[in-house]
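Subject: two folds for Thursday's group meeting

Dear M.,

Sorry for the delay on this. The cluster queue was jammed most of the week, so I only got both jobs back this morning. I'm pasting them in the order they finished. Each block is the input sequence followed by the predicted structure tokens. Could you check whether the formatting survives your parser before we put anything on slides? The first protein is the one we discussed after the seminar.
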Amino acid sequence: MKKILGMGNALTDILLQIDNDNVLMSLNLLKGGMQLIDVKRSEEINTAVSKFSAKMATGGSASNTINGITRLGLNAGFFGKVGKDEVGVFFANDSINNGVKPHLLESETPSGRCTVLVSPDSERTLCTFLGAACELESSDLTHDLFKGYDIFHIEGYLVQNHDLIRTAVKMAKENGLKVSVDLASYNVVEANLDFLKEMVDEYVDIVFANEEEARSFTGKEPEEALEIIAEMCEIAIVKIGKEGSFIKSGVEKIKVQPVVANCIDTTGAGDLYASGFLFGLAKSYSLEVCGKIGSLVSGNVVEVLGAKMTDEVWDKIHSDIKEIVQ
């Protein structure tokens, strides 16, 4: 059975459901955005939202995807960096509890964490202290890391470190792995456009993008963007929210309908779509089935706070997948 390795920011999510958006305005936070913060700003935000109950779980885009893949039943590992602190220990233990094989390096810097403020309309605002998570360097990579894996999945949030990404995708290809990239954020795409295009064109096999990211990458709307991305890689996926997703590989083009959901929090929706799709791909299912599984998992995660679902929800997902693949 194929195995998947993820690489990304090892972040612990601290999720809070706020009762209105006034707190965002008082903190001068852009609703729906992702802000990188330092320790001082992190303490300021924590004080302002202290009245709201918090839920903690391993996070980070690639980590969410890998956790989803193991819950679907595949073997998967995650490569990242944490601090020598309680948050780092939590990240490692929570990963193991979710069936993930952690390949974690340690730093003297505090572990990364992401405070996620979820508005009543389910929009999430991310305040990210990267800490040790952003200290991954190309020199941390070894060929042994890739041994035994078949697909290498990277989150786009790492692309600011061009040397790390270039070295990682080269090593992955040298070791026979397919390379998958989630573009992660439209502003990250805009800031690293030429580099991303170079990497996708030369090394990447699978690209995940939402419509904003696809527009930033190509300058086009979803369907036209899909065509352009598909010319650069083996499989292109453009997610269009409540309208579903488009998939193209070669001459094959598919529109996948969304799963109807009672959305309360979009945290992890794209990450878990990738979980379902890569799971299907590793099982050699058709692109249509891969997309349907991605849509199914994504549709379930938006009904809970955060990117982690209960065993009962996963049991239902497994049951629904059986019907999809029949």
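Second protein, same layout:
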Amino acid sequence: MDYSKLDGLVPAVIQDAESSEVLMVGFMNEQALAHTQRTGYATFFSRTRQKLWMKGESSGNKLEVVEILVDCDEDTLLVKVKRLGDGNVCHTGARSCFYRYLSQHHVVK
């Protein structure tokens, strides 16, 4: 993986393995990716807290990894997951972090 472009981080797009719905985007450093691979659960690096965190460690809504793909530049991951717990991934309680539409005056046509 190429961790050089974002100060040691790579974006990780999290996708429901069954429905293909994009659930969230997080960031992983080398340790977060290694922890994810070792445990089988999506783990990220929190840019605000400056530490590793496993998605769902407090809510129970863990993300069980089905497969991990890397893009052609080796600087972005696609992590296909099975949603555990109540299935809601967003910290707001929504199923996905992508539940709002960009206002019409910002949409490029």
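Two things I noticed about the second structure. The domain at 10-106 is CATH 3.10.20.810 (Ubiquitin-like (UB roll)). The mean pLDDT is 93.

Cheers,
T.
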